[in-house]
Amino acid sequence: MRKVKYFFRGRLFPCVLLFAAAVAGVAALAVWLPRLLAPVAALERAFSFAAALDVVISDALPEKKTARLMLLFLPWVGAALCLFFREKKQEFLRRERVDLGHGGLFSRVAALSEQATGLPAGRVRSLEYLPAGRDFYERLLADLEGAKERIWLEFYIVDRGVFWGNVLAVLEKKACEGVDVRLIYDDFGCAFTLPDDYARELGKKGVRAAVFRPLKPRRGFSKRDHRKLAIVDGVCYTGGANLADEYIGERIRFGHWKDSVVRMEGANAFSELFLRTWYALRPSDGIVPPQKSEEGGLPFVPLADDAAGSERLFPAVFCDFISHAERTLFLTTPYLSLPRGAADALSAAARAGVDVRVLIPHIPDKKPVFFLTRAYARELLRRGVGVREYTPGFLHAKCAAADGRYALVSSYNLDFRSFYVQAECGALFESETFAADVERDFLACWKQSAPPAKANAFVRALGKLCMLFAPLT
């Protein structure tokens, strides 16, 4: 009931209401006007032709063009939706502009990352893989209790409960002690979990909060801040877990919730990443001096993409990660709808003899999205990639490991939204010890998994049809 109340009282409800009214109005016009006035039918065709021309000459991905053109089969409504999904010109990372030298994967990704984001590769004093949300919860609380200077949090979802209640209690105490406490949360991600005026409520408790892209009818819902980032003095966390009870097992929603997070000491690049978002939302705040880079420790590459239409880093990094795998390639993702280039790279690696495995959930959190995930899973299986479903529950981890040498932990799902639309972050590591931890966790989950359920001809055909529209989700 609380989520329903937040929905009807929050900013999301009027946006949804206005969108539904617009679609209903256009649908009514499509049904009645052609009957009353013949020239209107010709006008509709001209409108559809203009919409089709706009799609063809755009710089969008081929998959997105196909999906938008399919909408034109609907009179009036299709053309209107086609223009609704229109995007500003988006630049994709052109690797020929980067001097990648003859180094391995790490040096290549470091060059790509610095060109796209301005964040150079760095070093961490210590590195710890946390294979469950409960581990993240316990380690985070301990670090929060010891905070002396800053606590900066950036999360897609914040939900009031045991997890957030205990975190907030520490944040209030630390704010009273003079610690710089800040929180960025996404307005769409928290539309069902937090009241509309929650940022103001937090301000009264000493927690400075900024809301990412407050929902407005004309703004759209696609470009969201999907990052999971916690910075406590010199410690940084990133991965798949949000600040909500299902992530730590306090609330059981979809069986066992499997997640993963990485804890780093000294990853100062993420502090700069957080501040970029903070100053974009609150430009009047005072400037915080940058932290010094670490001199020694384990190397890592910070990965980040913004939701503002800048160059996208992850598609290039993901394909490089796949192409460099020689023996093993293990991937986990809750949602699977890969762009054609990424799917081709996976199948090419499998044909070259690499042990390519992808782990997805068995119990879905969103059934329509899960139907699409299974459709893509069956396609990968057909192309020689191993795919299984984590049977104990919902797999939300977003990790990758290759050859027992490289590992990646991030907020990126393997879908179009994470690849091309949302703000995301993560880190790539070249460490046999850390990669072994990630692989060990993956193989333990793989043993508890099973192949996707077989589908009849109707389900397969419906899945193919849904895959046409996946780029618009």
Can you describe this structure?
The protein has 473 residues and is α/β, with parallel strands linked by helices. It has helices at residues 2-9, 12-36, 38-57, 62-70, 77-84, 105-117, 133-145, 162-176, 198-204, 269-281, 314-324, 340-351, 367-382, 416-420, 432-447, 457-469; strands at residues 122-124, 126-130, 150-155, 180-186, 208-212, 228-232, 235-239, 256-258, 261-265, 298-305, 328-332, 355-361, 386-390, 393-395, 399-402, 406-410, 424-430, 449-450. Helix 2 (12-36) crosses helix 3. It is globular. The protein has two domains: 2-84, no CATH class; 97-472, 2-Layer Sandwich (Endonuclease, Chain A), CATH 3.30.870.10. The strands form three sheets. A nine-stranded mixed sheet has the order 1-10-17-16-15-11-12-13-18, with helices on both faces. Strands 2-9-7-6-3-4-5 form a seven-stranded mixed sheet, sandwiched between helices.
Features:
473 residues; alpha/beta; Endonuclease, Chain A; 2 domains; 16 helices; 43% helix
Cα end-to-end separation: 27 Å
Strand percentage, roughly?
Answer: 15-25%
How would you state the average pLDDT, rounded? 85
* Coarse shape: globular
Quickly give the structural class.
Answer: alpha/beta
CATH superfamily of the largest domain: Endonuclease Chain A
How large is the count of helical segments? Answer: 16
Can you tell me the CATH class of the largest domain?
Alpha Beta
Task: Give me the count of strands.
Answer: 18
